[in-house]
Amino acid sequence: MQTRFPTTLLATARAGFGERLGHLVADGRAALAAPLPADPAAIGHLVFLGTGWTVGLAHEAALKVREAAQAWSESYPAMDFRHGPVAVAGSRSLVWSFGDVATSIDDTVRESGAFPVRDDRDPIAQLVLAQRFATALAAHRGLDPDQPRLLTRSVVLA
Question: Exposed e or buried b for every residue in 85-100, given b needs 16+ CB within 10 A?
C-alpha cells in the first residue's frame, strides 16, 4: 500500500501556495508510532470525511481500506455525511475526520452509535495513520495488504 504520488503532489501544491510544511516529517513519524484509534476487530465499516483539499485524502483513505482489507469504506465531504450516509453508521462504524471538519459532526456520529476519530496532526500524516489502520484491519481479516485481491502494480491496456 502506498500513496507516494498523492501525498507528494499535495505537499508540493501546499508548499507552492506558500504553506510552511516543516512540521510534516515530525507529524508523519508520530503517525507511524501512534496507537491505532480503534481495535480493527471491532470495526466493520469505515467512513472518511474531509473539507476542501482533505476530501481527496478521505477518498484515498477509503480506497486503501477497500484495497488492503476488502472492507466496507466510504468517503464524503464532511457536511454531505449528515444528509444520508449517516443513516448506515452504527456501532461497528468508525468515522474519521481529516483536517478542519466541524466538531459538531462528532455529535452526529455518536448519535448514530459510531465512533468518531480526530487527530491533531497534519492531514497528510493522518493518512499515514489511516493506512496503518487499513493494514491492521487486513491482518485481522487474514489478508495480505501487500498482495491486494485482483490488483496489480500497473494496469496494462491492450
Answer: bbeebeebbbbbbbbe
77 phi/psi in degrees, rounded to 5:
-60, 140
Per-residue pLDDT reduced to its tens digit, 118-134? 999 999 999 999 999 99
Cell numbers placing 31: 503517525
The mean per-residue pLDDT over the stretch 38-45 comes to 96
Whole-number pLDDT of residue 151: 63
Say how far apart CA 62 and CA 140 lie, in whole Å.
17
**Helices assigned H by DSSP within 2-156:** 4-16, 24-33, 54-69, 78-81, 104-111, 123-140
Contact criterion met (CB below 8 Å) for 37 and 85 = no
Average pLDDT, the chain: 88
Q: What's the gap between Cα 35 and its chain centre? A: 15
Q: Is 74 helix (H, G, I), strand (E, B) or coil?
A: strand
DSSP annotation of 141: T
Residue 123, strand partner residues: none
